[in-house]
Write a structure and sequence with these properties.
Elements (H helix, E strand, L loop, with lengths): L2 H14 L3 E5 L7 E7 L2 E9 L1 H5 L3 H16 L4 E5 H6 L1 H11 L4 E4 L4 E4 L2 H11 L9 E8 L18 E9 L3 E5 L2 E13 L3 E4 L1 H13 L3 E7 L6 H5 L3 E6 L3 E5 L4 E3 L10 E5 L3 E7 L8
Parallel strand pairs: 3-4, 5-11, 10-12
Antiparallel strand pairs: 1-2, 2-3, 6-7, 7-8, 8-10, 9-10, 12-17, 13-17, 14-15, 14-16
Length: about 300
Amino acid sequence: MSSEAFKQQFCNWLEAMHLQFAQVQNVGELATELAVFKDGTLLMNIMLITLADWQHVQAQMWQLTVDKAILLRERGTRCVIVWEDYWLKNPAIVQSRLNAMLGKSQKIPARLTQVRRIDQADAADFLQTNHLNGSVSAKSRYGLFLPKRYFRVIGNDFQFDDEADELLVAVATFSAPRVFQRVEGPFRSFEMVRFASLLHTNVSGGLDKLLTAFTREKNPDDLMTYADLEWSEGAGYAKLGFARISQTAPMTFILDLKNMTRHAKTADLDPNATISVQNAGSIKFVKTLAKHATDA
């Protein structure tokens, strides 16, 4: 797909969602910036990064793009950065995340769900289908399940197996603890590695319910996670009691153009079918927790 075809395909999707849009004219900038409207109300700005444009741009222009996205958010405008390779490889996940931000997802109340541990295979399958960055290894994995008796809250146009006994609607995975020795005793810090909801759903209160279950079982002293700056400033984490600690610099990846997969290393890749790309960096969040009794 050419870069123009990517942009046209994205605009076609917006039209299919009955959204209006207008290109923001930015002379000499890397991104193609679209202002997205509904009935005259600005919903968000979306910055499209084509691979062709990326290959002909200087690094400082990428930083200008990231800085502008952050500035727009600070001024109250939602803004996301969408790369061509992510759109080509995982269009359904990109569309699902945008739909959630646009309020067009199937809403499921977390209070109707049940939380329990799941195995590595089920977690990996879910995350590969529903998380933009796929699955990675984790020590602990938790899932939210909607019992069949509550399938009635799901709209008739939402496609799923309505003959099943339950529906897995969200997954969170966590690292093993890092233990620090302090005067008052060992300090146990965990990382939430992945969180994802089922495609095209918004599980209201889902992350909070998963975090509560993990905290009760593992009794962490603190819990750390990261917000992807291409998508947000992590406001959802702040609402759950996480504090912004630091901002990480953009990371460089090797993009395999044959399958649109990003790699941290170049091993076993055809150098004639790869380019170097960067992400926008991330924000580190930490939630400090009091000790919780395991029988709470």
